[in-house]
Design brief:
four-stranded antiparallel β-sheet, alpha+beta, 132 residues, globular, two-stranded antiparallel ribbon
Length: 132
């Protein structure tokens, strides 16, 4: 396996991996799945594709990802303008929680670029990673 920049064609796989690795309650219903993707995935793939990477298998299929945002202020503004607006459509309480989500990202406020943890499909565990 190797790590490469995420491409638009990788987004569906990145979203499948996000949902496959999410807690069961975060993917229980269609609204819960959409909320999960909006909270933890779509800001990065929409606004910061240059800071997103995928782990790919031998067939160049995404089996894991690293999502990043280089600027906390832009993250807050963009997330609240786009993703939060969509989450509010899923329910009032979800919208309130989403509004405060950037406040929970304490490492971003420190000026350190935010990088989500590498998440990968369970079927790929135990394999070696190639560095490129």
């Amino acid at each position: 396996m190797r790590i490469r920049k995420m491409e638009v064609r990788d987004i569906p796989a990145v979203e499948r991996i996000c949902l496959a690795t999410a807690d069961a309650r975060l993917r229980k219903t269609a609204a819960a799945r959409e909320n999960t993707l909006l909270l933890y995935n779509r800001y990065y793939t929409r606004a910061c594709p240059a800071d997103c990477f995928v782990a790919v298998n031998e067939a160049d299929e995404a089996v894991g990802y690293i999502l990043g945002a280089p600027n906390y202020r832009a993250y807050c503004e963009g997330f609240r303008k786009h993703e939060c607006k969509e989450i509010r459509k899923l329910g009032f309480l979800r919208g309130v929680r989403a509004y405060f989500e950037p406040k929970l990202q304490k490492n971003m406020r420190s000026g350190i670029p935010h990088i989500c943890t590498l998440i990968y499909c369970p079927r790929c565990r135990g394999r070696e990673w190639e560095r490129h």
